[in-house]
Amino acid sequence: MLKNKTIVLGVTGSIAAYKIANLASMLVKQHADVNVIMTKNATNFINPITFETLTSNKCLVDTFDRDFQFNVEHVALAKRADIFMIAPASANVIGKIAGGIADDMLTTTIMACKAPKYIAPAMNTNMYENPIVQDNIKKLESYGYNIITPATGYLACGDTGAGKLPTEEELMNYIVRELRYEKDLAGKKIVVTAGPTMEAIDPVRFISNHSSGKMGYAIARCAMERGAEVTLISGATSLAKPPFVKVVDVVSAADMFDAVVEHSADADIIIKAAAVADYTPLNVADEKLKKKDDDLNISLKRTTDILKYLGEHKKEGQILCGFAMETKDLIENARKKLENKNADLIVANNLKVTGAGFKTDTNVVTFIEKEGIEELPLLSKDEVAERILDKLMSFAK
Asked: Does the reported pTM lie above 0.90?
């Protein structure tokens, strides 16, 4: 994921410094070249040897340390960096950088760095809310630094409030978003639907399907990492919400339809990956509910066809992608869907193919468009998401 990427982590004097050891380990597992620079105060909270063991790189502390290959080290590392993140960032270091002071290895290196820079403040609530610190943070933002808002919670000092360093996973998300892909979707608004819908039979039972939402979530995350502004309209799933994505939770097909109508008007690309329950119960008599489930006779009505509605109301320049899950006549049925729904692309797969379908981490899909078809091999759903977005971007050129 981060192969051939050079990541510089700056660590300052804070009890939260221990979290960065895990972050460094997570980055190394993604094949990143991780370099850590510590302030002298930070070494009172965690030993530099910890980072050297995890990253296989020397942990830099002293600007005039002679125990490494000779070069102007702070300049050399600054030039190689693809991203520079200071986490935790103390009020002292934030103030020094904002004031242009470069009196140690950390501040000297970040001053020489032109890569994207992220600052994750971590300190006592009263310090964080101090107007001077807030002014320094705003000053850094005006200079193009990315500020990661601290979490709110119980702090090491015993206070409760803002100033807590976000989790390692959250910090990792910022790095991945910055580095994983080129931002070829920057400026694009994309709406993705994902997961199942549920239609209530009674207060206990409902009609649904086996959709896990994995494919739609993979598309939403990939689009976000490629720079798009993403809205994910999601039925109930057990998946973690993708970061930096606006998630709209829905239950029924009617809920999903309303959300799609509300959010798709100004979208550049709409991807309907949700597996909507096509029927909803109608006129269920109370006496019928007393019967056994296998004797229950429920009248059904069709729900609104979301993809068809989108095709009928497609705006000029808008790109529409739908999915077709079949058990037979895959190509023929997908072609009919492409035409009947006025879609630009249908992503079709066959439930009977090994590795495809619901709840798997892989998929085997075929792209159906007006110009022809393209069969893809067995891929991870993340890889399929990349290929879908590549194909949709080709329509916009």
From this structure: no
Mean of per-residue pLDDT scores for the chain: 89
Nearest-angstrom CA–CA distance, 213 and 196: 7
Cis check: omega of the bond before 88, within 30 degrees of 0: yes
Which residue, 351, 333, 345, 341, is CA-closest to 372?
345
Residues with Cβ within 8 Å of residue 376, at least 6 apart in sequence: 364, 365, 366, 367, 384, 387
Task: Give pLDDT tens digits for 138-189.
Answer: 999 999 999 999 998 877 777 788 889 999 999 999 999 999 999 999 999 9
- Mean pLDDT computed over 196-225: 89
Domains annotated on the chain, with CATH:
6-179 (3.40.50.1950), 189-395 (3.40.50.10300)
**Would you say 120 and 153 are in contact if contact means Cβ atoms under 8 Å apart?**
no
How are strands ordered across the β-sheet holding 33-38?
33-38, 6-11, 83-89, 117-121, 146-147
- pLDDT higher for 73 or 354? 354
The confidence score (pLDDT) of residue 209 equals 81
pLDDT digits (tens, 9 = 90+) for 262-298: 999 999 999 999 877 666 666 554 444 444 444 455 6
Element (H, E) at 190: strand 189-194
Out of 119-128, 198-207, 366-375, 378-387, least confident range: 198-207
Distance of CA 271 to the CA centre of its chain: 16
User: Which of 134, 53, 50, 145 minimizes the C-alpha distance to 107?
Assistant: 145
d(CA 192, CA 234): 8
CA distances from 133 to 34, 96, 120, 166 (A): 29, 11, 13, 18
59 given a catalytic annotation: no
Q: Which amino acid is at 336?
A: K
- Which residue in the list 113, 157, 222, 321 is annotated as catalytic? 157
Give the integer Cα–Cα distance in Å for 164 and 125: 8
Q: State residue 279's pLDDT score.
A: 62
- Phi, then psi, of 372 in degrees rounded to 5: 155, -160
What is the CA angle 184-144-83, rounded to 5?
A: 60
Q: In which residue are the tokens 């109508």 written?
A: 261
Query: Ramachandran region of residue 355, left (φ > 0), alpha (ψ -120 to 50) or beta?
Result: left
